[in-house]
Each structure stands twice: as C-alpha cells, then as structure tokens.
Amino acid sequence: MAMSDSSGGTFLYWLAIAGLMLLGGVLFIHFGLLVLFLEQDASRLSLVILAGLIIASGHAGYRSWLMDKEFKCARSLGAADATLSSEDHSSIATNYQNAVATAVANGREVADLVNLGTDLQQQVRAGHASGWFVADLMIKLGLLGTVIGFMFMLSSVAQMETTDLNAAKLMLTQMSGGMRIALFTTLAGLSSGLILGIQYQLLDRAADRLFGIIVTIVDTQHFRIANPSTDLD
Known about the structure:
Number of domains: 1
Number of strands: 0
Largest sheet: none
Strand content: under 5%
Oligomer: single chain
C-alpha cells in the first residue's frame, strides 16, 4: 500500500520555524531589544512569557520528531501488509492494529470499533492540548501585564498630592513606566502565543494525516483477511 509523499516531514517544517525563531532571537539580542525588555519591564512578565515560548517550542519539536517516527512505522506496517510487520512494536500504528485484531477476533466488526478510533485519535494528539493551553496562557499573561501596567499608571496619579512641576514630572515618569510594562508584556504575549500556535497547528495537521493513514492501513488489512477472494481478482 503506497503512502502519500505529503505524509511526514513534520520535523523538517518545525526546524524551518525554529530556524526563523533563532534568527529572530539573534536580531532581538543584536539590536538591544532583550536589554530593553530587562530594563523597561519591571513586572518581568515578558521574560516569563519568552522563557515559556522556548520551553514549549522544544516540546513541539520533540512531538514533531515523534510524529515523523510514527509516520515511518505506519508506512512500514502498510508496506509489509502483515499483522506483525513493523520493526517498532511499541508504535501507535502497531498498538492500534493489535487492538483491532483482538476486537475482531472477539467477534466485533471493524466498522464498529468507534472507541478504538477515539483512543487512537487521542494518542496521535497526545500533548497537543497542553501546547494550546500554554499558547493561550501566554496571551492571557500579556493581557495581565497590560492590566498591571495600567495599575502602575493609575497609582501614580492617585499618589500625586501637589500640582507643582516636579510632582507632575514624577507622575509622568511613573505613568510612562506603567505604559512600558503594558506594551512590552502585550507584545511578548501576543507574539509568543502566535508563534506557538503556528507550531501546534502544524502538529495537529500532521496528527490528522497520521490518524487517517493508520485507520486506512489497518481497516484495509482486516478487510483483506475477511475477504481473501478480493486479492485474487
């Protein structure tokens, strides 16, 4: 059974995204933006968001590597066209094939194995929900930084007791500090959430393709076992 050339290659796409992120990080440091974040963001939320982006991106890269490994196992399983043909017996495709074989041996039809299909879908998307949660959390942290920045601005106005020039200058300085917190955290949160969302969108699409390939391979094999006469036509 021939596999589509579009299947797999997820890790290469992730490497391309990681390369662009690395280039952006180098430019970010080269033009002094990192120092600017360190100096101007008193809340340090933007640094927490950027650190979360690096960690979550590493997780996305690991998941993309595992996804390509599962594609390879599914291809070998389909090409061999035998029940125990895969070299990696711990792969998702092999586990699903064994589960379907056991269910069919117990008298269930392949078309009725809805629960196994649901479990397979959860396996190929393992960890993706956590990634989407982190991406959403980054955006919310950015909005939280906006609130903190405005709180700094309002507190500077509330603390102003006199209307002389020096007090006005101090108030404006404190207000500008609050505005910087709001802007930097919002920028970090929105951009990091967007970048991480792109990576997990890539993983979700790959998971959908892997799910379709595994189901097609296993169902086709059991159909041929149940109807051996079709191979002679």
